[in-house]
Write a structure and sequence with these properties.
The chain is α+β, with helices and mostly antiparallel strands. Strands 1, 2, 3, 4, 5, 6, 7, 8 and 9 form a 9-stranded antiparallel beta sheet that branches. A hairpin with a 6-residue loop joins strand 8 and strand 9. The longest helix is centred in the N-terminal third of the chain and has 20 residues.
């Protein structure tokens, strides 16, 4: 089963769970079903729908719950646990944010069809040949650099790399690898924020200035992609990686991290996505 089939089957599991005793309504729970990490499953979803997974799931929860409440006049209190809401306050806030109405007003006035979140059916994208991912096995290595936390409002990485460049001369670099690296990691709940380490490789036993953070990269199998266009177009490369490459592959990314490598003197970016062993979809 490739990534696209996995995505469709997981979304079907989500829909089937709504209204039941154990609804699968969090990004974490769906990612566990899919075998992907929360971050990578969210990117796979977004690449096929242009929607944010967390927002879509919550909109479908609200729509399904309210449609049942309007149909059979069940109380909200009875329905909340069947649609993944922990308490009335959380449901109330979500309802106001989505529809601009309180739950009681929704029950009195109903909703327009345009306000409801219809179930989506992601379309399979045709496989493109613009990029070829190369499977590689790398030994573990150590990175040393400056750590940053970036929120969804971040539009450019230029500023953090400028800050790193001012202090890079204080690092004792690895003599055999003169490249620069950007290590990125995401929170388990697929937050829009991410932790970024701008770094260079160093020898594992070297003593470094306490100003810097150290990150040990474990031995791992990766898919490596080469981005040789302007850096501003790199979102299109990631769109291809998740919307086409992984959608047509049985391979699954590992964890909530990846790194980019910038070889010295070359105008290209190497993107490394760690891989995991295929895990069957739970029945």
């Amino acid at each position: 089963m490739d990534g696209y089939d996995n995505l469709v089957q997981t979304l079907s599991r989500f829909e089937q769970s709504l209204g039941g005793e154990h609804p699968l309504t969090s990004v974490q729970s769906l990612a566990q079903v899919s075998g992907y990490s929360p971050h990578h499953f969210s990117r796979l979803f977004s690449s096929h729908t242009n929607l944010k997974l967390k927002e879509y799931l919550q909109a479908r929860q609200l729509t399904a719950l309210i449609l049942q409440a309007l149909t059979d006049e069940s109380t909200y209190a009875d329905l909340l646990p069947l649609y993944g809401f922990e308490d009335y306050e959380t449901f109330y806030r979500c309802c106001k944010r989505k529809f601009g109405k309180s739950p009681s007003m929704v029950r009195k006035q109903g909703l327009q069809r345009s306000e409801l979140q219809e179930r989506i059916h992601p379309a399979r994208k045709e496989e493109a040949q613009q990029l070829l991912g190369e499977e590689v096995q790398l030994d573990g290595f150590m990175l040393c650099g400056l750590s940053f936390f970036l929120g969804p409002e971040t539009r450019s990485f230029h500023t953090i790399w400028q800050q790193f460049a001012k202090h890079q001369h204080l690092i004792l670099p690895h003599p055999a690898d003169k490249a620069s690296y950007q290590y990125s990691a995401w929170l388990e709940e697929a937050s829009d924020g991410m932790s970024v380490l701008c770094a260079v490789p160093v020898e594992k036993e070297s003593e470094q200035n306490p100003l810097f953070s150290l990150r040990s990269i474990p031995p791992c199998r990766y898919v490596r992609f080469i981005h040789d266009q302007d850096v501003t177009s790199i979102p299109k490369t990631y769109q291809y990686i998740y919307g086409t490459y992984f959608a047509h592959s049985e391979m699954q990314p590992l964890g909530n991290w990846e790194f980019q490598r910038y070889p010295e003197g070359e105008q290209l970016i190497e993107i490394y996505i760690p891989l995991r062993t295929q895990t069957p979809l739970p029945s």
